[in-house]
Amino acid sequence: MSKTFTWLVTGSNRGIGFEFVKQLVASSANVVVATCRQPESATALKDLVGSAAGKLHIVALDVSDAASIKASAAAANEVLSEHGLDYLISNAGIMQAMDGPFDATEEALLTHFKANVAGPALVAQAYLPYLEKGERKVIVNVSSGLGSIGLAFGAKQASYSISKTALNMLTYKQAADRPDIISIVVDPGWVKTDMGGPNAQVEPQDSVSGQLKVITSVTKEDSGKYYRYDGENLPW
Ligand SMILES: NC(=O)c1ccc[n+]([C@@H]2O[C@H](COP(=O)([O-])OP(=O)(O)OC[C@H]3O[C@@H](n4cnc5c(N)ncnc54)[C@H](OP(=O)(O)O)[C@@H]3O)[C@@H](O)[C@H]2O)c1
Fold first, then answer.
1. pLDDT, tens digit, for every residue of 149-192?
2. Which of 93, 204, 213, 222 could form a disulfide with 19 if both were Cys (CB 3.0 to 4.6 A apart)?
3. What span, in angstroms and rounded, lies between the C-alpha atoms of 198 and 149?
4. 51 falls in which pLDDT band (50, 70, 90)?
5. Which H or E run includes 177?
6. Helix (H, G, I), strand (E, B) or coil at 25
7. What is the atom index within ligand 1 of the atom nearest the CA of 65?
8. Which residues on neighbouring strands pair with residue 139, listed in sequence order?
9. % pLDDT > 90, the chain
10. pLDDT 10s digits, 123-158
């Protein structure tokens, strides 16, 4: 019998998260827990369930709500209790302000931190017991090139960029704390989604197929690294 891998994707009802689920369920080797804030209105995801032959499970998860994160881990137990979790993809994220460092509001700074940093941190904590039981034990924090200081993108999108830099540090801390788990950062590129907009340079399918190549091939030696979707190492 061929090997089965279990995956959990946050923010999977649209954009890059949805593309992850679409590509993953195309392989019979994958069992996917697709999470989103409002499963009842996740029509594209629900349409996939029929063709996924029992391999796709939709679970409610709002990454800005600690109670929702805990409840999702309990709900996912049915799928993950036996095999554990091989891959946790913390993809959900927000970019709600085109602000700069001198006009970013307290609300914008904290809202971005909650969704883009505290969310992935608490999701990893809630799913840690499943990761410990999984075979691959990979945490993927979907960040952004804007989170890199070394890439020097300038002053724009301050609240968002600062939150992604903090997400990068979270990943470093996860890797340092748990050498038995592979924690990496991935920059999906500038992708044509609601967030990336129509002028973006990368199609969702190309970003995700590239990210999946990286994610499925990383080893413990790669933990704590920062990758672009095409496999290139990025400067912090
Ligand atoms: N597109 C790009 O060019 C680009 C570039 C660099 C990095 N990224 C990163 O890639 C990831 C995906 O981006 P995308 O382009 O697919 O964005 P998107 O099209 O705006 O989709 C964002 C996804 O995140 C979900 N989400 C937002 N807040 C959430 C919350 N509190 N709880 C659960 N889900 C939540 C959204 O769900 P709802 O439908 O419920 O809002 C949606 O599914 C993000 O982390 C983003 O920062 C994107």
1. 999 999 999 999 999 999 999 999 999 999 999 999 999 999 99
2. 204
3. 26
4. confident
5. helix 158-177
6. helix
7. 31
8. 88, 183
9. 97
10. 999 999 999 999 999 999 999 999 999 999 999 999
Q: Which amino acid is at 99?
A: D
Q: Indicate if ligand 1 lies below 6 Å from the C-beta of 88.
A: no
224: Cβ below 6 Å to ligand 1? no
**How many whole angstroms from 61 Cα to the centroid of ligand 1?**
13
Topology, domain 5-228: Rossmann fold (3.40.50)
- Whose alpha carbon is nearest atom 5 of ligand 1? 190
Residue type, 42: A
Q: At what angle do helices 204-217 and 15-25 cross, to 10 degrees?
A: 60
Residue 152, C-beta contacts closer than 8 angstroms, at least 6 positions apart: none
Residue closest via CA to ligand 1's atom 32 equals: 62
167 is written with which tokens?
């997400």
Residue 224: phi and psi, rounded to 5, are 85, 5
Tokens for 64, please give them: 């800005």
Atom of ligand 1 nearest to the CA of 202: 3
